[in-house]
Design a protein that fits this description.
6-stranded mixed sheet; 33 strands; globular; 3 helices; mainly beta; binds CU-O-CU linkage; binds copper (II) ion
Length: 424
């Protein structure tokens, strides 16, 4: 956990240093990149309205930035390397922003992200709200995979599947560990689990076995108005879901997350237990969670409709991933007015999936592929499966220049990167 060195209760002030460190993985000592020597980086916690000050120093050999994924902060603090010139080796930069909303977020670089994130630069960022329901425990699970070769992290963009589908690892990690995560809990406890998929490309599937009840209570944009139960959670890269997990009172009961891993689009699944809870002690008193009643957001209708087409073509240097016919587009894809509500029609014209991520704004999912199902909750990332169309309603409330890209980091680095401008 990052140490807050500011005595003011409304200011969180921390130091972050990026530097190489050796990490034990797969029985080997692997050179990774870390924040403050930790993989994943330290948990940053704040409460709604706090000012966050991060004194960052780059002690790696490459330029980098930090992007605060999901936080609706000013564009100059968002780690966009087109706005903030990347922090060069040996240099410092102070990120300073106010956190406007509660939820489960994360941070990672936005320069050669496919390499820097894979090599270990990411960490969790939780914003609390004093009105949040109170749980017996809160836990963060950062789910990742990593591709190791004979001597450490395998070379980047070196295989056709990696260029096509993004990099799928051969080791699965939760909070940097390949071993089963073991939890201790009292029977009958109710916990909040914050799940973040930090893999470069792999969509994770999460099923919980053995718990008395599990429901989804939050999405990228914080608590839902109405929690819901699902048999299996699809967790694309970049996205977050919070689960409320209630243990039974049977003292020998085990709870586990079962990750069903989809290996590059083919249907061979591998089930892997990643979390096991052993219950001991006196059962907690049966209780129900008081769900906070929030002022309902006023419904907003689309004032405009725009289309984003995702495709890939063979360019002079190999495959280029494009949005609306351009790879690494320099000029803005669209310009909106602050406060504008826009329907984005996301059309995937090829087979590989694209988790589309928009910085600095929220959207809601209206339509997903052939299903006309909306999904409750605010999001900043949505999966657009191969040859499918997904529609979202985006609320462009945060002015500035914002990155809009595929969160499969290889696709982004190979061109699927653009910018949307919101005029004040
Ligand atoms: Cu998680 Cu543009 O980033
Ligand atoms: Cu993509």
């Amino acid at each position: 956990m990052a140490v807050d060195r500011n005595p003011d209760p409304d200011v969180v002030e921390i130091d972050l240093f990026a530097y190489p460190a050796m990490v034990e993985l797969d029985g080997k000592s692997i050179e990774m990149l870390t924040y403050n020597g930790h993989f994943p980086g330290p948990l940053i916690q704040a409460k709604v309205g706090d000012e966050v000050v991060v004194h960052f120093e780059n002690q790696t050999l490459e330029p980098t930035t930090i992007h605060w994924h999901g936080l609706r902060i000013p564009a100059e603090m968002d780690g966009n390397p087109r706005i903030q010139s990347p922090v060069r080796p040996g240099e410092r930069f102070t990120y300073r922003f106010r956190v406007p909303e509660a939820g489960s977020f994360w941070y990672h670089p936005h320069v050669r992200a496919n390499e820097q994130v894979e090599r270990g630069l990411y960490g969790p960022f939780v914003v609390h709200d004093e009105r949040d329901p109170v749980y017996d425990a809160e836990r963060v699970f950062m789910v990742d995979d990593i591709l190791l070769g004979a001597d450490g992290i395998a070379p980047f963009l070196a295989s056709h599947p990696e260029v096509m589908h993004g990099r799928n690892g051969n080791i699965l990690l939760v909070n940097g560990e390949e071993e089963l995560v073991r939890l201790e809990a009292r029977p009958g406890s109710i916990e909040r689990w914050r799940l973040v998929n930090t893999a470069n490309a792999r969509t994770m599937r999460v099923r919980i076995g053995g718990a008395a009840s599990v429901r989804v209570i939050a999405s990228d944009g914080g608590l839902l108005e109405t929690p819901y139960a699902v048999p299996e959670l699809v967790l694309p890269v970049g996205q977050r879901y919070d689960l409320e997990v209630r243990y039974g009172t049977d003292p020998v009961e085990l709870t586990q997350i079962v990750r069903t891993v989809d290996d590059q689009g083919n249907l061979r699944y591998v089930d892997i237990d990643v979390v096991r809870a052993s219950l001991s002690g006196e059962p907690r008193a049966d209780r129900s969670i008081e769900w906070p009643v929030r002022d309902a957001r006023a419904p907003r209708d689309a004032e405009r409709e725009v289309t984003l087409r995702f495709d890939g073509v063979n360019g002079p240097n190999g495959i280029e991933w494009r949005i609306n016919g351009a790879a690494h587009r320099r000029e803005p894809l669209f310009t909106f007015r602050k406060g504008e509500t826009v329907k984005l029609i996301l059309i995937n014209e090829a087979g590989p999936e694209h988790p589309f991520h928009l910085h600095g704004q929220w959207f809601e999912r209206l339509r997903f592929g052939r299903l006309s199902d909306t999904e409750p909750g605010l999001k900043d990332t949505v999966l657009v499966p191969g040859f499918e169309t997904v529609e979202v309603l985006a609320y462009f409330d945060n002015p500035g220049r914002w990155m809009a890209h595929c969160h499969i980091l290889e696709h982004a680095e190979l061109g699927m990167m653009s910018e949307i401008v919101v005029e004040d």
